[in-house]
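A reminder from the course coordinator: this example appears on the midterm review sheet, so study it carefully.

Given structure:
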């Protein structure tokens, strides 16, 4: 089964003639036979990795050595593309027992490394990378991006993966009895509390302005699962917790986007953050849970309505989340921004949704020019539904929750989502996103921007805690 995926990773050198660089291992002559091609790919990748292993560490290479390594890595990635063009369906069937099992993203990736050596990095390699800065990493996450791009590109394999990621997490299922009994679970980076039929999920990463990292994404998915699993809950609310940073002490903030310190230090995972975030809690906010029932061929039933209570700011990833919520209530002093170019990475699925919500030109102004939209600006009418005094956000949220608890809401939101963003549309976008984002995370310009941001924020920190925002967030000084 072919997938029709491109054979070049975004951001790498084009090779229109297809001619190998002198000294680069010759491309394997794949035949379409599963076992033979698996062996050929493994041998080719092993030969390529031996060449790069003989070079100095990434940050110590000369320009000529970097170019040499780039040619070798690109050759290995072209081979992976060709292999997956032929064998994605077979790989996926092997990993899922013919789609009888529903492994999550990380399980799928690491199992693929075992049955197809060289296709994706092993768990040990990814664990080793997590101890390095982003500049020092092996860029094996780019190979994970190639793998998931092909899996998502195929309709059958992509739909299976998307539905697998809508299953409730093991952590949520384990905590469900406690939540049902107490109506409250503290997950560290998030807290979920039930009050009547409303479950409020609070982001708790106060020291960095409620920025998101791998641990926050894991906690948010668990919290969202609990709200969706509890039959007493009819409406969910997402809100940022009270901050501890001196500049915003005592105030809430919806979120400051990705934790840039974690990205700089190599602690943001492509699979555990970039992909899990989109296929996990954010998509569950839209579609609810998929329990994998054989008698439910149409998949998730649309979940529950969600309200966003936006205090102070919704920056980057926080603004992305606001796009999928059923009602957004903002304080009059709040603002929205999507500083994609400042970070250098792709802002999740915002490129898919933003133009639909605010129009193409406004989307360009937000993504390409970093425009900040105050909640009271006329342009904000498409980003939030209601603007109230900062102290009235909670009261307005409660009133909206009462309205959205109407029994007719779930069916109507299901039909709205079906029209706005089909599974095929989202799957196609995420397939390309996997390629683009994995490459962007390891692009030299992104690493350089992270370095400048890191150095720039260390300087004001030395001047005193009130000199600027929390280091490593997207919030402006």
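Designed residues:
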């Amino acid at each position: 089964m072919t997938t029709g995926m491109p054979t070049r990773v975004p951001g790498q050198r084009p090779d229109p003639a297809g001619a190998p660089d002198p000294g680069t291992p010759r491309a394997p002559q794949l035949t379409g036979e599963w076992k033979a091609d698996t062996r050929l790919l493994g041998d080719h990748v092993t030969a390529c990795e031996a060449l790069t292993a003989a070079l100095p560490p990434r940050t110590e290479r000369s320009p000529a050595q970097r170019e040499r390594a780039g040619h070798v890595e690109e050759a290995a990635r072209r081979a992976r593309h060709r292999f997956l063009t032929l064998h994605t369906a077979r790989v996926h069937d092997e990993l899922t027992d013919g789609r009888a099992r529903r492994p999550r993203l990380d399980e799928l990736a690491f199992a693929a490394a075992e049955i197809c050596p060289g296709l994706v990095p092993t768990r040990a390699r990814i664990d080793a990378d997590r101890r390095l800065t982003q500049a020092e990493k092996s860029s094996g996450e780019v190979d994970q991006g190639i793998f998931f791009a092909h899996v998502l590109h195929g309709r059958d394999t992509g739909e299976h993966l998307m539905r697998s990621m809508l299953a409730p997490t093991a952590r949520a299922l384990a905590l469900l009895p406690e939540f049902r009994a107490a109506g409250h679970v503290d997950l560290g980076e998030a807290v979920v509390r039930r009050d009547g039929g409303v479950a409020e999920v609070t982001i708790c990463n106060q020291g960095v302005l409620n920025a998101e990292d791998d641990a926050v994404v894991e906690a948010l998915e668990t919290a969202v699962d609990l709200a969706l699993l509890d039959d007493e809950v009819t409406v969910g609310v997402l809100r940022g917790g009270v901050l501890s940073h001196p500049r915003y002490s005592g105030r809430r903030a919806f979120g400051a986007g990705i934790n840039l310190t974690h990205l700089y230090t190599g602690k943001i995972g492509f699979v555990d953050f970039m992909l899990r975030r989109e296929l996990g809690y954010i998509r569950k906010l839209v579609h609810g849970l998929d329990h994998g029932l054989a008698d439910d061929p149409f998949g998730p039933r649309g979940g529950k309505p969600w309200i966003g209570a936006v205090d102070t700011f919704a920056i980057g990833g926080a603004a992305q989340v606001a796009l999928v919520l059923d009602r957004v209530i903002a304080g009059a002093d709040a603002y929205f921004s999507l500083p994609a170019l400042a970070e250098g990475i792709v802002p999740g699925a915002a490129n898919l949704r933003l133009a639909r919500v605010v129009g193409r030109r406004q989307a360009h102004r937000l993504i390409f020019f970093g425009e900040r939209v105050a909640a009271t600006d006329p342009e904000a009418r498409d980003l939030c539904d209601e603007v109230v005094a900062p102290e009235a956000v909670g009261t307005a949220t409660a009133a909206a929750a009462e309205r959205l608890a109407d029994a007719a809401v779930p069916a109507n939101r299901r039909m709205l989502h079906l029209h706005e963003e089909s599974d095929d549309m989202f799957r196609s976008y995420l397939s390309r996103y996997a390629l683009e984002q994995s490459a962007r995370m390891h692009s030299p310009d992104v690493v350089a921007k992270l370095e400048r941001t890191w150095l720039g924020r260390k300087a004001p920190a030395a001047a005193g805690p009130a000199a600027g925002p929390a280091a490593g967030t997207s919030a402006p000084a």
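Confidence is low (pLDDT under 50) at residues 9-20, 461-471. The first strand starts at residue 184 and ends at 186.
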